[in-house]
Amino acid sequence: MPNRFPQNFLWGGAIAANQVEGAYLEDGKGLSTADVVGYVPPEERGSLDELLSMNHAKLDEAIHTPGTDQYPKRRGIDFYHRYKEDIALMAEMGFTTFRLSISWPRIFPNGDELEPNEAGLAFYDQVFDELHKYGIEPLVTISHYEMPVMLTTKYNGWASRELIDLYLKYAETLFMRYHSKVKYWLTFNEINCTLKAPFLGAGILTEGLDHPRQTAFQGLHHQFVASALAVRALRRIDPGAQIGAMLARKLLYPYSCHPGDVLQAQSENQMALFCSDVQVRGEYPTFINRVWEREQVHVEFHREDKKILREHTVDFLSFSYYMSSAVSVDPQISELTEGNLSTGLKNPYLDTSEWGWQIDPIGLRVALREMYDRYRVPLFVVENGLGAADTVEEDGSINDDYRISYLARHIEQMAEAIADGVDLMGYTSWGPIDLISASTSEMRKRYGFIYVDQDDQGRGTLARSRKKSFYWYKKVIASNGEDLSQD
User: Fold this and answer.
1) Distance from CA of residue 265 to its chain's centroid?
2) How far is CA 364 from CA 80, 192, 252, 316, 339, in A?
3) What distance separates the 2 farthest-apart alpha carbons in the chain?
4) How many Cα neighbours within 13 Å face the side chain of 226?
5) In this predicted model, what pLDDT tens digit does every residue of 419-455 receive, in sequence order?
6) Which of 79, 76, 94 is CA-nearest to residue 134?
């Protein structure tokens, strides 16, 4: 039987600088918006929206509070000093690509300096050189849920159009420095998050604003323009490289065959693809006008914006996929399930993870087929994984069969989507090494094939060790996705 995955398929894993690097003020780095997000113990957490929110008082307190005790992303897992060891472990698994992000405040500490920080640039030179030593292609996210915190305090983040030029200068600096080392770029991580969590996605504080939704949409528009201008810049500086969009994709099903449920699911799935419509098709979808009318939103366009968006679309579309959920117009159906920066109705046909995320491998195939039919550009699954509280046995082993099962079923559905005709570039599982959670800032929620000895309070040796899934994924990559057996 012919191999279901193409021979040039890219296999690897994905991390974010703010969740792994640590060294939050070393070598000239400035504070990032991720560095001011505190850890909240599970028993003290409110809703997901509350957990993701930021106000002026919290921000000011965090900026003036030194140290890492309250702010886990400041310490990460010390990738900054241990990247050689970590990359060697990725290479041992056979990675052909590694998705990572660059810390904006490591390059421009405040975001608006005239010259970049050479020490920050040199660090990523070393990381890319180490990857290439093992034949691993970097897939680099320019902005992944962090930006210099000064851009929030001075401009209120992407609410200000000033950030377009600042981001473009940052992106061009990266393209010129790394044009011989990076072939694959992403402009923003999960760009649609700006509407759900404006501070996380765009450094926007909504406290005190007359119309927060208006500001979020305006900030998103500024990100669209900046992304398109970055596409234009890369094609001028390094025409052989490719640049993509990155979307948080959660499939939504109608809870029943009631036409109202079907219509609501369709509407919410349209909104889930709103950002990729702009970045791949080069124009705003027509349905957004009714959304804006209903929410009394008026997005300000500059004269050249539509032309910029139309002429500088991305080469490929990447996305995260972890779960699906359901929607209904029936108020009596109210049992909720958690998700990636969102909640939804619980689907009775699906299992649920330890963190309340519903497990839906077939939904990945559905999403791949729908997006490829819609856009006809190559797709790339750049985040997918299972967060769980792993147990270290007395002999040091970690038998994470639940993670293997989750990943195997999703990879199987990717193979089916390829057989359906989907052009799929590659797969980078989320968190191949344990890292600080984006939403909850906890360490207990682990995704990795590689265990890191650290708890939620930062206690531990930071020693790395291989889980059972490490050897399983090594086998998967060696067989180009053919051997998914879990024995």
Assistant:
1) 23
2) 33, 18, 11, 17, 15
3) 65
4) 28
5) 999 999 999 999 999 999 998 899 999 999 999 999 9
6) 94
Among residues 21, 137, 383, 442, the one annotated as catalytic is 383
- At residue 14, what are phi and psi to the nearest 5 degrees? -135, 140
Residues in Cβ contact with 281 at an 8 Å cutoff, skipping those fewer than 6 apart = 313, 375
Count of beta carbons in the 10 Å neighbourhood of residue 336: 12
State yes or no: pLDDT of 36 exceeds 70. Answer: yes
- Residue 119: which of 128, 108, 132 has the closest Cα? 108
CA dist., res. 291 & res. 210, Å (int): 18
> What is the pLDDT, as a whole number, of residue 483?
96
Amino acid 1: pLDDT: 40
- What is the C-alpha separation between 99 and 93, in angstroms, rounded? 15
| Active-site annotation holder among 137, 190, 338, 442 | 190
Q: For 202-224, give the secondary structure using H, E and C.
A: HCCCCCCCCCHHHHHHHHHHHHH
Altogether, the residues listed in the chain come to a count of 487
Weakest-pLDDT range from 342-346, 354-358, 472-476: 342-346
Q: Is the dihedral of CA 362, 365, 367, 369 positive or negative?
A: negative
Q: Pick the closest to residue 222 from 203, 200, 196, 250 (CA basis).
A: 203
Under 8 Å between Cβ of 80 and 22: yes
CB of 365 within 8 A of CB of 416? yes
Q: Is 354 known to be catalytic? A: no
Do 384 and 414 form a contact (C-beta atoms < 8 A)?
no
Quote the tokens at residue 435: 């890292």
Q: Are 103 and 73 in contact (CB under 8 A)?
A: no
Statement: the pTM of the whole predicted model exceeds 0.85: yes
- State CA 370 to chain mean position distance: 20
Query: Which pLDDT tens digit goes with each residue over 145-164?
Result: 999 999 999 999 999 999 99
Instruction: Mark whether 44 is an active-site residue.
Output: no
